[in-house]
Amino acid sequence: MYRSQEVHSVEPSAVDSVEDTYEFRGATLTISNNDDSRGATANPAASQPAVLTGTDTTSPTNPPQHLHGSTAREAPRAVVTAESVRPKIGSPRHFFCFRKGLFEQAIKDITEILLKPTYDSDILGSCLLTEISHWDHERERIVILTTKALYVIKYDFIALRILKKEKILLNKIDTIIHGKLTYPTASFVPERNEMGIRVMWNKGQPLPAATSWNPFAQDIPWKTFTNHPIHGYHDQYNSLPSIRDEIEATRLTYSVEHLHQNLLQLINNPQPNIESANVNYNCKLEEAPILLENYLGLGAVFHNKNNLGFFKVRGKFSF
């Protein structure tokens, strides 16, 4: 009699445990015996959950165990595929220059402050590119081509002001090289796999050693440009359609090929409104690899990897 009462006192608690487990929807209860567990150990591939293998583990040999009284309200299991785990790429909106109207405002400020109507009669092209220094440091620069000069300008897209300007007369340019950016064979720096152009006015003379070994030297007789990082932004998995459409509409602004084509058109097709003394029409146009002499520049790699030469949003700070 005492034993019978003990059994009756246990059964209600077991039912309560099942109901509590059903109300808690954050876990899945699986009932198996010792034979099933040994079989799962012998076949580890079959015991992997669906979120790791990308396949459904429900099969005729391993039927799902349902609790008594369960309904169809249980949410379907998510399956992780190769498309859903692609690495995310930083949004182009982290670059201040990508914000609507800022590049146009920069061109307006430069035109009003730097360009002289009596000297620079017409703007032939403008773009936002990456300048590469002789120590392989990348910098964000606005490049404006006029009828007499090539302007390279550092513009603060946060404070909206001009920080630095360089003016290269077109009649001083003697060589324009277009090709792939490469490193020496003994370099430990990863390959870029990018195209660029180098505008030179050194008349074939090598760079002095004192200048070459000075990372702060300003009198380098050439300029090397490549595409802005936004130009190569392709992320159809994580970006909004509005971002992708805006990139496609402004991609030419960030293209080094756009600047190259404008220079070719200026040199190969003399215009009657441009005086011949303002442009060197005997400039050499070459198609060749552009050598970046960086052998073990860990500082340059760190600088370029984190886009320290660009005005960006960086967490709680912006610079």
What does it look like?
- The protein is built from 9 helices and 11 strands.
- 27% of the residues lie in helices and 20% in strands.
Keywords for this entry:
319 residues; alpha+beta; nine-stranded mixed beta sheet; two-stranded antiparallel sheet; 11 strands; 27% helix; disordered N terminus
Brief digest:
With 319 residues, the chain is an alpha+beta fold. The protein has helices at 2-23, 34-42, 44-47, 50-53, 102-113, 209-212, 241-250, 256-268, 298-305; strands at residues 123-132, 138-146, 149-156, 161-169, 175-182, 195-200, 222-226, 284-287, 290-291, 313-314, 317-318.
- Estimate the strand proportion: 15-25%
Estimate the mean pLDDT confidence. 76
Tell the overall outline.
globular
Number of helices: 9
How many strands in all? 11
* Distance linking N and C termini: 82 Å
Poorly predicted runs of 5 or more residues: 1-25, 33-89
Largest sheet: 9 strands, mixed
Structural class: alpha+beta
Radius of gyration equals 32 Å
Measured as a percent range, the helix fraction is 25-40%
The run of helices and strands is HHHHHEEEEEEHEHHEEHEE
List the helices and strands and how they pair.
Layout: H1 2-23, H2 34-42, H3 44-47, H4 50-53, H5 102-113, E1 123-132, E2 138-146, E3 149-156, E4 161-169, E5 175-182, E6 195-200, H6 209-212, E7 222-226, H7 241-250, H8 256-268, E8 284-287, E9 290-291, H9 298-305, E10 313-314, E11 317-318
Parallel strand pairs: 5-8, 5-9
Antiparallel strand pairs: 1-2, 1-7, 2-3, 3-4, 5-6, 6-7, 10-11
